[in-house]
Design goal:
The complex is a heterodimer. By secondary structure, chain A is α/β, with parallel strands linked by helices. Chain A contains five helices and eleven strands. Chain A is globular and about 45 Å long. The chains are: A alpha/beta, B alpha+beta.
Chain lengths: ~230, ~80
Amino acid sequence: MKSSVITFPGSNCDRDMDVALKKFGFKNKMVWHNDNELPKSDLVVLPGGFSYGDYLRCGSMAAKSKIMQSVINFAKSGGLVMGICNGFQILVETGLVPGVLLRNKYLEFICKNVFVKIDNKDNQYFKNLNKEVFEFHIAHNEGNYFCTNDQLKEIQDNNQVAIYYCNDDGKTDEKYNPNGSLNNIAGIFNKEKNVLGMMPHPERMIDKSLSGEDGSIFFKNLINNIK
Amino acid sequence: MKISAVITLKKDVLDPQGKVIHQALDGMGFKGIDEVRQGKYFEINVKENDPTKAKEIVEEMCKKLLANLVIEDYKIIGTQ
């Protein structure tokens, strides 16, 4: 299985993602933002970081970079595109997934482990997972998901919420919402469920010596789903 | 020609920075503030002497990059 990780100026989780993808069997290529063409891929990942220094709005410049036209075409033809953290911010700026990510409600950069609940397993990313609640790491300043009422209705009608912030039991109460996200939303799909944007970093949870191994479960399952 | 544009958050979008600025102003003695909303201001020099055309170009920029129309509104406020 082939994957591509796009590196933008200011990306800083691109190599972590490379390590994670390779560990679970992907043949990964790093792709520079200024390239025109994507290598043949089964999965494209927009990594976390601070592309273009978060200037203007997080992800706004990266969304207009050269490679993104190929990524958008790949996504529109049904290819799997996953955006993590800044990658999620880039995805909303391209319009591939609905909504925006605002500054965190209490204006703090949040860096901690959180629990998220998978809402919808009817997609390539989560199908066949045998658990619902995952412990992942978040590290962001703008993760406060927001969309218009009309968009929210569409998102709910199409089961586009991928994951919610919750506690270790899977309760999605406002008190387990770290950043003020609308309805505790931590990740969103496009309508067709081939594009996934989420704030948590599964690539930071792939080794016992790091803070956990829930990311390993996610990546192992993902490559098996794509095969 | 220099075109000025402001980008503001839409009315129903939470603006935590504006809120904090409001509180700080209040603490400094500026009482009687109803609300503070923070926005962005751009001055763009375009190589175009016709003000109508110049405005159109900057409007296009606002729609495509400078503003995110899900949460923000833009307004061309001046030509020079």
